[in-house]
Amino acid sequence: MDKYYKKRLVPLALPAIILFVVVIAIPFIMGVIYSFTGWRGTYFVGGENFWDAFVGFDNYIKAFKTQKFIDAFIYTIKFTLVAVVVINVVSLAVSLLVTYLHKAASVYRTIYFLPNLLGGLALGYIWQFVFEIVFSKILFGEQGIISIPALQNMTQDNTKALFALVMLFTWQMVGYMIIIYTTGLNNISSDLTEAAAIDGANAWQRFKSITVPMLMPSFTIVFFLTLSKCFMLLDQNVALTDGNFGTRMLALQILRTTRDGSPPDYGLAQAQAVIFFVLIAIVTLIQVSVTSKKEVEV
Amino acid sequence: MKKKVLWMILAGLLSLGMLTGCGGSGGSSESKSESGSESKTADAGSDKDYDLYIFNTKGENADAMEAAAKAFGEEKGVTVKVFSLGSGTNSDDTLRTEMNSANKPAIFSCMNAQALVEWVEGGYAMDFANATNEEFKQLVGEIPDSFHLTDGNANYGIPYNVEGYGYIVDTQMVASLFGEDNVDAFIEAFKTASYDEFEAAVITLQAYIKENTAGTVTLSGEEFQLADEKTGKAASLEGVFSVAGAEKWTYGDHFINIAIDAVFKDSKAAGEATLEELEAGKGAFMAYAKALDLKTSNATTARGPELISATTNGYDPSVATFANSKAIFIKQGNWAYENIKTANADVVDTLTFLPIKMPFTQDDIKAEGQTVEHMLESIPVFVPNYYCINDKVSDEEKELAQEFLVWLNTSEEGQRFVVEEMAFIPYNADPGTTSAGYSLGDSIISYIAADQTLTNAYAGSPASWASETFGLHMLENYVNTAEWPDTAYEDIANFVISSWAEAAGLN
Questions:
Q1: Chain A residues touching residue B10 (CB < 8 angstroms)
Q2: Which of A39, A139, B301, B466 is the most exposed place for a label (fewest CB within 10 A)?
Q3: What residues have CB less than 8 Å from B367, skipping those under 6 apart?
Q4: In this predicted model, what pLDDT tens digit does every residue of A182-217 receive, in sequence order?
Q5: ipTM beyond 0.85?
Q6: Reduced to 3 states, what is the DSSP secondary structure of residue B270?
Q7: Which positions in chain A touch B26 (Cβ < 8 Å)?
Q8: Element (H, E) at B192
Q9: Is B83 exposed, middle or buried (0-12, 13-18, 19+ CB in 10 A)?
Q10: The CATH number of the domain covering residues in B24-162+384-421
Q11: Which CATH class is domain B165-382+439-504?
Q12: How big is the A-B interface in CB pairs under 8 Å?
């Protein structure tokens, strides 16, 4: 089969390559060029073409000075820190449970995966209802079953909304990460664990010295996915709070930049988008190289 | 070798298929109107399949606009293409995409002077002084000054229609509260009532609703006795006002517009506001805060976090609350007619507008020629959207665009489409003879006829300041808080002044 594909490499790969170049690579390059100009969406300030409207690094300087951009940046970092830890811990715990159970493990995995199938917007609106009605009135409200102020009106406060977003995102992503972790766990040869048990290692020592190092490839993938997805979160942000109460994250900030001024400053928005790209690229490259070194080859 | 060629061809076709999908102009509800007779254009060299392209951003009249375009097309023997977006969708990005393409729309929509800036700067908005069609020039000359779309130098837009807003009240509700015979008297007395009478009336009504305390409401010196028992529609009342607390634009745009009207004559004056003028308006802004306090304290939902929750106090829930007779007043515009009808068709025929009252003194009013009496009995009537002609299309298309706008606004057939099918109130309607055909529209026409109108001066405030900066501040700090501090009115007024000045770069 390999030979078959190797001979037809070019024609088989061609559609994907063309699609990538036209839809991703070319607009990306155009965007980077426009970020150095005074682009307003339909025209260029100062000239007919983009090279007449060159403004150098002005857009970037303005982006870093915009208070909204800095706020969105900080909020996104806070959210990412919390969400990555929570998602990893929860999905690892659940996948350990699921593999331990053996029976009906695949049924559980399917059920946990279902939330992942919902689109971000639908999820955001459903959880908005949950936070505003179910949490705030029925369960934890003043007339609810138990009154917990910390869980009331979670979409109306900066910090509470962060945890609301974390809850939402964990619910969505855990299923996907469980599948990755369970595959990784199933690939750990039982010989190793048996040998360790014979040598007298207890459960915690076995976990620490065998499971964790062997799971490093899965850690790499899960970290990479959650880190980049948390940074790029948009749909759920819009649907849950629409950026009110200072909960605007980076992607939403870029989107709304064009509405914040008249005429719409697309050059500034594009500069923010390029900064966004560089940021995520740096973070994920570092993270991938660091965790790759810890992978153990058997 | 043959198989390799076959593969290359298949791969190429696949890519082409994907690219044509991406390459077409975007959009959801596209439609074209074909004309029966032969095409008249001399566009021999053009490969366009239409003669006139209209980009319509008001989604509510999409079908009617297509019908109107088709009728025009048949009359003139041209092909007209109309593109409409769903109502409520933000159309800016789609419009900009179309402007960047080879097939630019000849007629497009522009909301106000703030939105106009990018089209003038980019050279897309045609200056009507350069119009070539004689009837069009006449049409432009007849637009009243306050309905101009201008950047200070030239006129760029033909109004779509006029809209208005105020306190919508169901006269059947008034009948069950005060007796059927007193309805007309109540409505008239309300219009001329002072703010203090209004405030006392609201408090009396709220006490009546919540605690069943009987009482009388005094408006313009006349007394109206509340019915002893709550019968009929009054039985389901839960509050005096239905407030859409989650919608920033209701108190961030439209409610503060009244206060801005007290300070600035129209949106142009507001657009040129100086720091001194803003500070002089402090009294008016404090009056706004007091009126908002009154409104949100006497709503169907108590002021607090629940009032800004989108699920209970969003636009649709608040309209449904009013339509189901749970509130006496809702501050909305004639655009809400369809929503009210969907929620409860029984109430739509007996609706009318009442003016929004704020506690202005003559000192607070800085706009020239404005008086307290006039402000107390008027509702804002304004143009929500304008037709602009694209300067970058061919001359034939510009000519056709002008002909279409003339036809739509002056010919009998065109006006029939505007009034009946689009359910618009034409801006150039003669209030004496036009009937909008529905309760709220006729109410607005009666206010126009009596010259009891205000402008939408808030449109001159810095871009997105009204809802995104000011409205957001109110949402996050005041509408969601049950208790306001003693300095709340002053704080709000100061915030209006400082945030406007900052957004406009005045300090």
A1: 11
A2: A139
A3: B261, B262, B263, B264, B265, B269, B457
A4: 888 888 888 888 888 888 888 888 888 888 888 888
A5: no
A6: helix
A7: none
A8: helix B183-192
A9: buried
A10: 3.40.190.10
A11: alpha beta
A12: 92
